[in-house]
Amino acid sequence: MAYVITLTGPSQCGKSTIREMILKHRDKNFKPVIFKKYTTRRPREFEDDTICVDNIPHDCDLVYEQYGVRYGFHFDDLYDLLEKGKSPIIVLNDVRAVEDVRIALAPQVKSLFLYRNPPDKEKFIEEEKRRAKAGTSEEAIAETAQSRYDKAKAIYRIYIENIYLFDNVILNIGSYDFTKQQVAHVVEKMKSATKKLKG
């Protein structure tokens, strides 16, 4: 059985790292792939799971908004991958979106919550300095970082209050190897479930 694997967690929790760990477990029975969703956010360097657009296509089945940015995708694209035996990995940073996907595709959904640390204001400032265009004032950088930090705190609370929505929690708080072991355990559980169905 193929699964839709959802990754959810606050900014800087390691979603890209976890996704890459999952992709490394690919074999003849487990075929994880990156799932692209539409976003109205500006393109980011090295990002390979979004299609940047001015407006989300009107026929998207699921649309949600975060940080003033809209996201969307078609359920048919998920169904097509599942029918081909592939397991799409999709970052969903909205608990309502996670719930909608679980309702639409249960039991073929494995939802993972990635925990690292509560939002850290200094890290948001550092990140905004890296992202800002040349010539952006320190004041503008601080204002954007504060806004993102405030939103991240509110969203983080929502995640914790809805922790029951997730099949697994991955604690990305120790060494790389510790996180890698947790991901391997989650993937092995998915593979075992698939073997039982085939057997």
Please summarize what this structure is.
The protein is of the alpha/beta class and 199 residues long.
Key phrases:
single chain; 199 residues; alpha/beta; 5-stranded parallel sheet
Radius of gyration: 17 Å
Number of helices: 6
N- and C-termini, Cα separation: 12 Å
Order of helix and strand elements from N to C terminus: EHEEEEEHEHEHHEH
| Major beta sheet, strand line-up | 2-7-1-8-9
- Give the overall silhouette: globular
- Rounded mean pLDDT score: 91
Please indicate the percent range of residues in DSSP E strands (runs of 2 or more).
Answer: 15-25%
Quaternary state of this entry equals single chain
What characterizes the major β-sheet?
5 strands, parallel
- Return residue spans where pLDDT drops below 50 for at least 5 consecutive residues: none
Question: Could you explain how this protein is built, in words?
Answer:
Helices cover 44% and strands 20% of the residues. It has 199 residues and is an alpha/beta fold. Helix 4 crosses helix 5 (138-161). The protein is globular and about 55 Å long. The mean pLDDT is 91.
